[in-house]
Each structure stands twice: as structure tokens, then as C-alpha cells.
């Protein structure tokens, strides 16, 4: 069992990562142009951190834990199965969300100006229908996507606070363009920058909520074997997020090479930080 200080620290990191959507909202409403180069490098950096830590640290820790409990052969099979099970889990979740309501769809700050023109052409009835649809689907999409991310951050922080901090920073960077993606369509539906900022900021709460629900569901069954399986699944989830969301988004925002430079930098920083805390 973990002590209360570790649990609160893990929860705080998850809350920090989730509320980074507010940074994206501020970029959307307090800047005139999207800094696509910065976002491309930052998202590549985030992917580098998550890929390196998943393969080098989390997968290995899960394997050691499961092999000590189940034996060398069965422990390795369980680790690999849980790893791909995590990928399958987040993949199914991703397929459940319609593309047009997916919070990871690309949006730029520049869209605000063009949306203001479109809004003026619509009738109040059209706006109301869009608002209802947007509210329901956006809330569902954010909750579905952020649940496993919150669980990943929380679980990693419980196992190793330094590891949890690195993953929280990576998830926070990932949530910045998500904040833009959520703010732009909500502003389109409500014509209110304040509502768009508030809802986008609060959408990040899905991550700590996901962490709490996941922990409460797992706590009665928590054992070295269960923890090893969850940890291997978290590695799979983070690899999927990096390959399916972070890198494609990074390349869509900027040049291909910028995202790769960020990727290598993220891996290097993660490698050095792990070496320093050996």
C-alpha cells in the first residue's frame, strides 16, 4: 500500500497535467497567431519523453514485477499481453469518438476570426442545436480520452515520483493543443470567449477524475501482479498516444524535422534525468 503523501502527490501531478488545457485556451484567446513551430517541437518532445520512458523504464519495471510473481516465462508473457492490451484499450476508446468531436483534431488560433464571420450567418435555432451537440459530444470526447491519460500519470507517480513528474510534464505539453482544439469549437457554439476558456480549462479535470476512479476500482485488488499488469498497460497506452496523437499532431502543426528534433530532445532529456536519479 502507498502512504497518503504519495497518493496526494500523484493526484497533484495528475491535476497539473490535466489543467494544462487552460494554457491552450489562453493561447487561443490572448494571441493572434498559433506558434506552430513551438507546438511542433513541444509535441515531439512530449512524444520522445513518453516513448523513451515507456520502453526503457515502465515496461522493464512491469516485467521485473511480473516475473518475480509469475516466473520468468509467464511473467514475460503477462507483460507483453498487458502492454498490447493497453494499446487495444486506448485504441478502442479512440474509435468510439467521432472524428469531428475528437478533441485531438487540429485547430489553430487563426480559426477564431473566420468563425466569428460564420456565426453571424446562423439563426438562433442553428446556434442552439450546435451548442447542444457540441456540449454533449465534447464533454464525452474529453472524458473518454483523458481517463487513461490520468490513470497513466497517477500510476507512474505512485510507482516512482520522479517518473511520474516526467510523464505529467509530457501529458501537460500534450494538453496545450487540446485546449486550443476544445476552445475553438466551443467559442463557435457560444460566441463567448469566457465560456470557451472555462469549459476548456475544466475539461482537464477529467484526468484527475480518471485517476481517482481508476485507483478506487483497483485498490481492493492491488497486488504486485495487478500493479505489474497495470504498469505494462500504461506503457502501451503511452506508446499509442505518442504514435497516434502526438507525432501526427506535431507534424501537422509544423515541419517534419522540427517534430523529430523535439522527439530526440525529449528522449535525451528523459535519459539524462533517469541517469541522474539512479
From TrEMBL:
Its main location: membrane. GO terms for cellular component: plasma membrane. InterPro entries: ZIP (IPR003689), Zn_transptr_ZupT (IPR023498). The keyword Cell membrane applies. It is a multi-pass membrane protein. One of its GO terms (molecular function) is metal ion binding. Pfam families: Zip. Fe(2+) binds at residues 146, 149, 175, 178, 207. Signal peptide: none annotated. It is found in: Cell membrane. Keywords: Cell membrane, Ion transport, Iron, Membrane, Metal-binding, Transmembrane, Transmembrane helix, Transport, Zinc, Zinc transport. The keyword Cytoplasm does not apply. Zn(2+) binds at residues 149, 174, 178. The chain crosses the membrane at residues 6-30, 37-62, 74-93, 131-148, 196-218, 224-246, 258-277. It catalyses: Zn(2+)(in) = Zn(2+)(out). Belongs to the ZIP transporter (TC 2.A.5) family. ZupT subfamily. Mediates zinc uptake. May also transport other divalent cations. This is Zinc transporter ZupT. It comes from Halodesulfovibrio aestuarii. The gene is zupT.
Amino acid at each position: 500500500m502507498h502512504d497518503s503523501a504519495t497518493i496526494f502527490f500523484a493526484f497533484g501531478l495528475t491535476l497539473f497535467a490535466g489543467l494544462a488545457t487552460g494554457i491552450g485556451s489562453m493561447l487561443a484567446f490572448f494571441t493572434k497567431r498559433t506558434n506552430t513551430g513551438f507546438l511542433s517541437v513541444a509535441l515531439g518532445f512530449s512524444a520522445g519523453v513518453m516513448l523513451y520512458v515507456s520502453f526503457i523504464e515502465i515496461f522493464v519495471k512491469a516485467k521485473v514485477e511480473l516475473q518475480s510473481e509469475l516466473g520468468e516465462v509467464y511473467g514475460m508473457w503477462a507483460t507483453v499481453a498487458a502492454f498490447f492490451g493497453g494499446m487495444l484499450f486506448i485504441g478502442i476508446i479512440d474509435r468510439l469518438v467521432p472524428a469531428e468531436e475528437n478533441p485531438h483534431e487540429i485547430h489553430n488560433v487563426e480559426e477564431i476570426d473566420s468563425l466569428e464571420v460564420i456565426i453571424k450567418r446562423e439563426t438562433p435555432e442553428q446556434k442552439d442545436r450546435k451548442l447542444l451537440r457540441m456540449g454533449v459530444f465534447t464533454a464525452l470526447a474529453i472524458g473518454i480520452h483523458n481517463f487513461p491519460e490520468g490513470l497513466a500519470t497517477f500510476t507512474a507517480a505512485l510507482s516512482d515520483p520522479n517518473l511520474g513528474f516526467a510523464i505529467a510534464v509530457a501529458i501537460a505539453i500534450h494538453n496545450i493543443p487540446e485546449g486550443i482544439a476544445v476552445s475553438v469549437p466551443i467559442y463557435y457554439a457560444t460566441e463567448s470567449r469566457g465560456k470557451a476558456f472555462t469549459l476548456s480549462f475544466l475539461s482537464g479535470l477529467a484526468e484527475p477524475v480518471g485517476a481517482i476512479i481508476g485507483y478506487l476500482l483497483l485498490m481492493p485488488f492491488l497486488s504486485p501482479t495487478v500493479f505489474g499488469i497495470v504498469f505494462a498497460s500504461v506503457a502501451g497506452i503511452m506508446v499509442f498516444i505518442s504514435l497516434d496523437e502526438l507525432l501526427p499532431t506535431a507534424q501537422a502543426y509544423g515541419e517534419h524535422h522540427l517534430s523529430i528534433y523535439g522527439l530526440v530532445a525529449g528522449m535525451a532529456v528523459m535519459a539524462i534525468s533517469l541517469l541522474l536519479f539512479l
